[in-house]
Amino acid sequence: MGSKAESMISDSIRSFVDRRATLAADVIERDDEIDRLELEIDDLCYEILALEQPVACDLRILATALKIVKDLERIGDIAVNIAERVLELTQEPELKRLIDLQMMADAAQKILKESLDAFVDSDADLAEKIIFNDKLVDAMYEQVFRTMLTYMLEDPRSISRALKLIFIAKHLERVGDHSANIAEMVVFLVRGQDIRHKAHLV
Question: For residue 180, what pLDDT is reported?
């Protein structure tokens, strides 16, 4: 499921960069598979909980899986949202290519991949690095937003296209958030330590 979600994000970004409507449409069609896997994994986890009554480490594995599949399903939805904006953008002239947005896309894909690697390898140290790097993706979003605002103020004809690019940037920022959620669950899995909302409690 993680591999499929990662592939959908990668292809949605490629469809945006290359302005490929057919690839964007393909991403949208693949969302049903992610939804099916979410239900399958949920059913398996609940079945194990009911029949095996796991404790300690085994229980943490199940709790982590149940949380992570929700984030992966949302990442699949985000890929669809990006693809839908791409379909709209390909009907309009291209706005000036944004280096900041491409850098943000690369960063979001990187921490998504790393969050899945951290889960597979039970790597809590990598997970903590991902949580920090999510803040960098947030900062990149703010930069893209400011750039798009400038475009809209300078040329009102660009408003429709600039808003769609802001939406894409916001979706990428959410990929970072969901990746950080996965990383937090990896820390819980490995150390038994719940660090969610920790920043709000300090």
Answer: 96
Q: Are 141 and 167 in contact (CB under 8 A)?
A: no
Q: Is the pLDDT of residue 177 over 90?
A: yes
Q: What is the pTM of this model?
A: 0.91
Those residues whose C-beta lies under 8 Å from the C-beta of residue 92, and which sit 6 or more positions away, are 160, 161
Closest by CA position to 128, among listed 173, 190, 58: 190
Q: Give Dmax (Cα) for the chain.
A: 63
Over range 59-69, report the average pLDDT: 92
Q: Which residues lie closer than 8 Å to 93 by C-beta, 6 or more apart?
A: 161
Q: What is the DSSP string of 101-160?
A: HHHHHHHHHHHHHHHHHHHHHT-HHHHHHHHHHHHHHHHHHHHHHHHHHHHHHH-GGGHH
User: Which pair of tokens denotes residue 27?
Assistant: 């991403």
Among the listed residues 7, 28, 8, 22, the one whose alpha carbon sits nearest the alpha carbon of residue 80: 28
3-state secondary structure of 20: coil
End-to-end CA distance of the chain: 34
- Distance, in Å, from the CA atom of 139 to the CA atom of 110, rounded to the nearest integer, reads 16
Q: pLDDT category, 176, cuts 50, 70, 90?
A: very high
Tokens of 86: 């791409």
Report whether pLDDT(132) > 80.
yes
